[in-house]
Amino acid sequence: MKEGPDIAQIGALIGDPARANMLTALMGGQALTATELAGAAGITLQTASSHLAKLEAGSLVTQRKQGRHRYFALSDDEVGLLLEGLMGFAANRGFLRARPGPKDPALRKARVCYNHLAGDFGVRMLDRLVADGHVAVNGDDAILTEAGEARMAEIGINLDTLRGQRRPICRTCLDWSERRSHLAGSLGEALLIRFIDRGWARRSGDSRAVQFTPAGERAFLDLFPVLDRV
């Protein structure tokens, strides 16, 4: 009898095309109804409900009721990190589902990865934090340094609130479009919220893209100056 984690079950849940499309739709970090997820997957509502029941049983999604509606979301950060990592793995090996379209440049520049900033801007932000000694990275692990704590306080991030959460403050997440890491964890989420609250950026209504205003982009690049990439 084989022992240890059963990756076959997780692989089967994610590997179904309809379920993969629904999980990808939830990578935007917003809770969606079964009807909305059925549309994202191109299937009927009845079929979507069956798929969602399997995803919920596998602890990949969770649901909450609000009035007459049920909303579904990814269960936690771990699911988002797994999906983004699989996207990067697939992209590295040429498994692409479609040619780039009009939305592709916007997604590659800045997008939501579950609850944090991804794409070129997300990678640049982590690069700058590491170069300035604010975040120390060792493999997949990331730690906010003492200098980084002071920097986050200047930006307006309440670290006491982040420490009270049951998840890491810093994590790295493999970026599928940049093929490098961006910042995840509660700090990654807090920074994205901060950018939006300041009016630097806003969520795109019909995609995962994050759109920075011209002034917001200048402010972002002032905060995280571009590094020369070799």
Tags for this model:
230 residues; alpha+beta; three-stranded antiparallel sheet; two-stranded antiparallel ribbon; 11 helices; 18% strand; globular
Give a brief description.
With about 230 residues, the protein is an alpha+beta fold. The chain has helices spanning about 5-15, 15-25, 35-40, 45-55, 75-90, 105-110, 120-130, 145-155, 160-165, 185-195, 215-225, and strands at about 30-35, 60-65, 70-75, 110-115, 115-120, 135-140, 140-145, 170-175, 180-185, 200-205, 210.
Average pLDDT: 90
User: Poorly predicted ranges (pLDDT <50, ≥5 residues)?
Assistant: none
The tally of helices reads 11
Strand content: 15-25%
Rg from C-alpha positions? 18 Å
Q: Return the structural class.
A: alpha+beta
User: H/E series, N to C?
Assistant: HHEHHEEHHEEHEEHHEEHEEH
Share of residues in helices: 40-55%
Number of strands: 11
Side-by-side strand order of the widest sheet: 1-3-2
Q: Which sheet architecture does the biggest sheet show?
A: 3 strands, antiparallel
How would you sum up the global shape? globular
Report, as a whole number of angstroms, the end-to-end distance. 49 Å
Q: Kindly report the oligomeric state of this protein.
A: single chain
